[in-house]
User: Which sequence fits this backbone?
């Protein structure tokens, strides 16, 4: 099992002759630089902190927590301790050491706290072989739950994360940032998702990062964009709920965040549509 984890970890790094050989051994298609870049650079960055931090940014408190686990074991943290390849390699090392308690803690705190949602997002949009890679990795991690047992408490990463702010009571610009912060919204929106939204709604997709693009969609047609966001949040709620049996309180946390997003966005959409009708009638 440890060799499988190390092989899957290596495939989360840029392709080399070595990773090509590993893909063949795992029965996967050959990873290309283009597929790797689209998956891990443009669509779903492979850093735990981007999905666990309250600001949705790489680094910060979530990265510090992962580094702290290394220090607790008497080891020097690597430069990017929250990179997916690194955390998988660290977990494989714990498996080899046979430290069951530390292994259980690391599995729930730093892997299953974010990877079920992340790997689902990869499976939705990535070029081959990464959808199959994501399926195999998730299957491997959930098998670990069968061996080590369920989460005892909610991972520290997921405690005390701020709720999704109601823009009617705060700076309206904050809603875009919060929607693109998975730990707050329960939703993962990639560039591919926003491109799909622009196509479905017949809106233009502005050049820029995801914040610029989402803000632009809302500015062009707020009611339609809000309805689309609510639909995405409902889909994510169902996805999180599908993991309830396997990941218990973790799935419950993510599903509750997505549910709260649905409720807020539905309310905002109704308010905007009523304002539009009132403006048209005056």
Assistant:
């Amino acid at each position: 099992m440890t060799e499988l984890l190390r092989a899957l970890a290596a495939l989360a790094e840029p392709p080399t002759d070595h990773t090509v050989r590993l893909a063949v051994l795992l029965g996967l298609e050959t990873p290309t630089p283009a597929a790797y870049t689209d998956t891990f650079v443009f669509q779903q960055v492979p850093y735990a902190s981007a999905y666990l931090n309250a600001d949705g940014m790489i680094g910060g408190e979530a990265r510090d927590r992962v580094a702290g686990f290394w220090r607790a074991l008497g080891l020097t943290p690597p430069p990017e301790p929250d990179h997916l390849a690194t955390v998988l390699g660290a977990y494989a090392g714990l498996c080899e050491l046979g430290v069951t308690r530390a292994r259980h803690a690391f599995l729930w705190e730093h892997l299953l706290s974010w990877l079920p949602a992340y790997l689902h997002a990869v499976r939705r949009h990535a070029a081959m072989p990464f959808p199959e890679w994501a399926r195999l990795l998730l299957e491997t991690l959930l098998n670990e739950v069968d061996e080590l047992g369920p989460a005892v408490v909610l991972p520290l990463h997921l405690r005390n994360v701020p709720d999704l702010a109601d823009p009617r009571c705060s700076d309206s610009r904050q809603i875009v940032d919060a929607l693109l912060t998975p730990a707050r919204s329960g939703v993962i929106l990639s560039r591919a998702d926003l491109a799909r939204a622009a196509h479905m709604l017949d809106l233009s997709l502005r050049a820029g990062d995801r914040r610029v693009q989402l803000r632009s969609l809302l500015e062009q047609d707020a009611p339609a964009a809000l309805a689309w966001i609510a639909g995405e949040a409902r889909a994510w709620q169902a996805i999180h709920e599908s993991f309830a049996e396997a990941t218990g309180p973790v799935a419950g946390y993510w599903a509750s965040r997505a549910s709260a997003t649905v409720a807020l966005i539905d309310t905002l959409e109704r308010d905007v549509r009523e304002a539009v009708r009132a403006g048209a009638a005056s």
About this structure: The chain has two domains: 2-152, 161-281. The mean pLDDT is 93.
